[in-house]
Automatic annotation (TrEMBL):
GO terms for molecular function: glycosyltransferase activity; lyase activity. InterPro entries: PRTase-like (IPR029057), PRTase_dom (IPR000836). It comes from Nocardioides vastitatis. The keyword Glycosyltransferase applies. This is Phosphoribosyltransferase.
Length: 166
């Protein structure tokens, strides 16, 4: 099943996603930042974190699950970190690269960054997209947009197994 792109939306394809990962990794390298761990914000940052881990030669990956968006332009009042969360002590003294798909409001990135701030040596953020109104300015950004983004992994409904009647 394919979907037609919507004119007022930014559409990321899997091919463009590969370019985004490469370009973001190159930005990190050019900046001289050598993370000890890539921390994904689930779910949107999982693919990016995996790609950055491979591109940067970082085998230490972790994730934190944050719930904020409940639908298109629908969100909770504040982002909530869901269990299990990585123990902050596990990251003590590390250089952390936090990966997410988009810095829209920036509040999810802010919650995660602030949660680990007192425990890590340094934390930087990498996102595929940044919106102009975000409260966090990621160090590494692939593209900036004001549009809603259709990501290849979330632009179609989840697959469901249907049982045959009878």
């Amino acid at each position: 099943m394919t979907t037609e792109p919507v004119a007022d939306r930014e559409t990321l394809t899997y091919e463009l996603f590969g370019s985004a990962v490469h370009d973001l990794a190159q930005q990190v390298v050019d900046d001289g930042f050598e993370p000890d761990i890539v921390l994904a914000i689930a779910r949107g940052g999982l693919g990016l974190a995996m790609g950055l881990g491979y591109a940067l030669g970082v085998k230490n990956l972790s994730s934190v699950n944050v719930e904020f968006y409940t639908g298109v332009d629908q969100r909770l009042d504040v982002p909530i970190m869901l269990p299990p969360t990585p123990a902050a002590v596990d990251l003590t003294g590390m250089k952390v690269l936090i990966a997410d798909d988009v810095a829209d409001t920036g509040k999810t990135l802010e919650v995660v960054r602030d949660f680990f701030a007192d425990h890590v040596e340094e934390a930087r953020t990498a996102v595929i997209y940044e919106k102009p109104w975000t409260v966090i300015r990621p160090e590494y950004v692939w593209r900036r947009t004001e549009q809603w983004i259709d990501f290849p992994w979330s632009s179609t409904p989840p697959l469901r197994r249907t049982l045959a009647s009878g």
